[in-house]
């Protein structure tokens, strides 16, 4: 059996009981054999400041190196004010700098937005996709993943309680595994 593709998962919410972290963990448990999902923490990253490009903090260097090692990236995010949370945007900026040295370049990507609201973080999902286009991240287009009702989605063990949502998440993961194979750099 070949080694599974390494997928770096960035969770947009830093909250301890984050629905998005629960979704990322549930997705890791449901991932098909061809991919391995691993959450890459972003809460420890100091705010991006271009003055630090020549002498970056150690956590920036470690984060950039981890993203570069990944075969693909997945973003699991809530919506804050019709956009992505500041911590996620900061991580994207840190990974993209210094200019011309982006760790994101060419990494196949997927965006999943999770929210208690009925529209499932639609605004954050699409706003994030705009940044990823600029960063040359080929983002999976279908199935679109706006998952609403997150406050009722998980069982006590953190699994996805709703069978139709679990089936949808499995479809996302299977499709993403194929997307990675079609779009991963040679």
Automatic annotation (TrEMBL):
<feature type="domain" description="NADPH-dependent FMN reductase-like">
    <location>
        <begin position="7"/>
        <end position="150"/>
    </location>
</feature>
<dbReference type="InterPro" id="IPR005025">
    <property type="entry name" value="FMN_Rdtase-like_dom"/>
</dbReference>
<protein>
    <submittedName>
        <fullName>Quinone reductase</fullName>
        <ecNumber>1.6.5.2</ecNumber>
    </submittedName>
</protein>
<dbReference type="Pfam" id="PF03358">
    <property type="entry name" value="FMN_red"/>
</dbReference>
<dbReference type="InterPro" id="IPR029039">
    <property type="entry name" value="Flavoprotein-like_sf"/>
</dbReference>
<dbReference type="GO" id="GO:0003955">
    <property type="term" value="F:NAD(P)H dehydrogenase (quinone) activity"/>
</dbReference>
<keyword id="KW-0560">Oxidoreductase</keyword>
<dbReference type="InterPro" id="IPR050712">
    <property type="entry name" value="NAD(P)H-dep_reductase"/>
</dbReference>
């Amino acid at each position: 059996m070949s080694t599974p593709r390494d997928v770096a998962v960035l969770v947009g919410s830093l909250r301890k009981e984050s629905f998005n972290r629960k979704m990322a963990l549930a997705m890791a448990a449901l991932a098909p054999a061809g991919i391995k999902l691993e959450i890459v923490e972003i809460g420890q990253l100091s705010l991006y400041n271009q003055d630090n490009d020549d002498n970056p903090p150690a956590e920036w260097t470690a984060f950039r190196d981890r993203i570069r090692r990944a075969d693909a990236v997945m973003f699991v995010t809530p919506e804050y004010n019709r956009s992505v949370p500041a911590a996620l945007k900061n991580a994207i900026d840190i990974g993209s700098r210094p200019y011309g040295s982006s760790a994101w370049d060419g990494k196949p990507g997927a965006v999943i937005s999770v929210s208690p609201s009925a529209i499932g973080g639609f605004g954050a999902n699409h706003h994030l996709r705009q940044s990823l286009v600029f960063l040359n991240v080929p983002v999976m287009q279908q199935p679109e993943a706006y998952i609403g009702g997150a406050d009722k989605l998980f069982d006590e063990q953190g699994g996805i309680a709703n069978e139709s949502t679990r089936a949808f998440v499995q479809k996302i993961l299977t499709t993403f595994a194929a997307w990675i194979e079609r779009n991963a750099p040679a």
